[in-house]
Design brief:
single chain, 403 residues, alpha+beta, btk motif of tyrosine-protein kinase itk, Immunoglobulin-like, 3 domains, 5-stranded mixed β-sheet, 8 helices, elongated, binds zinc ion
Length: 403
């Protein structure tokens, strides 16, 4: 038995056939080429038009004939037309060329190139826009923040007079106060926070990654300062709980990004999403640690305005709606060099192109006006906005039901 590849477009047996089964009408396929006009997709040989790429792939062949084991010389180019469209950026041409070169059309899940090419056909009529997403504050976070407030108040009551046995508050410094002589030596510490990610442990300040927890704990500090910061043991215990990690999971329609850390402070946390990028600046814990997660380009496109943000006592959860249903291989488009930054806010790279407007203020108004004029689809970079709440007083927390 010899299995051959059929190069007919949209071959009815997914491009694999046995030589003995070939015959004058063994294959149903499209003799024409793909046609993408605005949101409509179809084949030049027949009339059916659909908007969804999956449906396009599923349009049954309109013509019967034998399977074709001969690879054609000329690459298949889709006929792409977008009303009022300007020249496509080079990268999308490249993606199209790769996608429609000589590959088989039917496959699942799609490769990123295929998804990107599909979405690129709609891309030029879209303006990337930053949207700020408003969080839903879960009751568990209200409780946690109330605890933090109390800890803060109790801390004010703690004696400030250093006593023998008090630890140094700084991460990575193992010193305890033994007497006046302890003030003579320098403090070597990690100004960052511990990050646990994909089995690796490291400090956000120096990022020396290790999978061994003991080795991680024993990593000498990366900064030195003259004096230790002696604190009451209770306070030191609270600080030692501060660490952070992230992960993501997905369904065919959603991609969910989780950041795990205790006591996120909503009014100092901002989440921005566009159709292809994510930036989360978050602040957590009694030390008010400022961290960021930034994805320079997502693996696929999302519908930013439909993003949801939940913040609980130990987790920040961003649920984004995929523009096209299907499975993503990764969170970020590694294939084209995209990266995920996770670390101290002040080390965060700039991820937004200059022309990306925020969804508030004049830029947005201008973008909307343009949309009306050109009948373009605006996909916004949604700033998942800061909450309206001004105070985090314990009293307010107890009285107010945050939306
Ligand atoms: Zn056809
Ligand atoms: Zn065939
Ligand atoms: Zn120290
Ligand atoms: Zn360090």
């Amino acid at each position: 038995m010899v299995v051959l590849t059929c190069y007919n477009k949209a071959c009815s047996v997914q491009g694999k056939f046995e030589e003995s089964e070939n015959g004058p009408e063994a294959c149903r396929f499209h003799p024409g080429g793909p046609v993408f006009h605005d949101a409509y997709k179809g084949w030049s040989c027949c009339k059916k038009r659909v908007t969804d790429f999956g449906e396009f792939l599923a349009i049954p062949g309109c013509t019967a004939g034998p399977h074709n084991p001969e690879k054609s010389e000329a690459p298949v180019k889709p006929d792409v037309k977008n009303t009022g469209a300007k020249e496509k950026p080079d990268f999308s041409k490249e993606r199209d060329a790769k996608n429609y070169g000589q590959e088989t059309y039917v496959s699942a899940p799609p490769s990123r190139e295929k998804l990107a090419a599909q979405e690129a056909s709609e891309e030029e009529s879209e303006v990337e826009q930053k949207c700020c997403i408003k969080p839903k504050i879960l009751s568990s976070l209200k409780t946690e923040l109330a605890k933090m407030e109390l800890a803060e108040k109790n801390r004010a009551d703690l004696t400030k007079t250093v006593q023998v046995g008090w630890p140094c508050s700084r991460s990575g410094c193992q010193e305890t106060y033994k007497g006046e002589a302890s003030n003579a030596n320098c403090c070597t510490y990690h100004p960052g926070v511990p990050i646990f990610h994909e089995g690796m442990k490291f400090w956000s300040c120096c990022e020396r990654k290790t999978s061994d927890f003991t080795a991680f704990l024993n990593q000498a500090g990366c900064e030195t300062t003259e004096n230790h910061d002696w604190v009451h043991p209770d306070e030191a215990a609270l600080k030692s709980k501060e660490n952070s990690r992230y992960d993501f999971h997905q369904t065919p329609t959603n991609i969910t990004l989780n950041i795990y850390c205790r006591g996120v402070i909503p009014k100092e946390t901002t989440v921005n999403v566009s159709n292809c990028r994510v930036e989360i600046d978050f602040c957590f814990g009694i030390r008010k640690t400022q961290m960021s997660l930034a994805v320079t380009e997502l693996w696929g496109k999302v519908n930013a305005t439909k993003s949801r943000l939940n913040i609980g006592s130990t987790k920040l959860e961003l649920i984004m709606k995929k523009k096209t249903s299907g499975s993503w291989k990764k969170l970020h488009a590694e294939e084209i060099g995209a990266t995920v930054f996770f670390g101290m806010k002040d080390k965060k790279p700039a991820i937004w192109p200059d022309n990306v407007a925020s969804d508030s203020g004049e830029a947005q108004a201008a973008a909307k006006e343009k949309t009306v004029q050109k009948k373009e689809v605006v996909v916004s970079k949604h700033v998942i906005s800061k909450p309206v709440e001004e105070d985090l007083d314990v009293d307010d927390l107890l009285e107010n039901e945050w939306s």
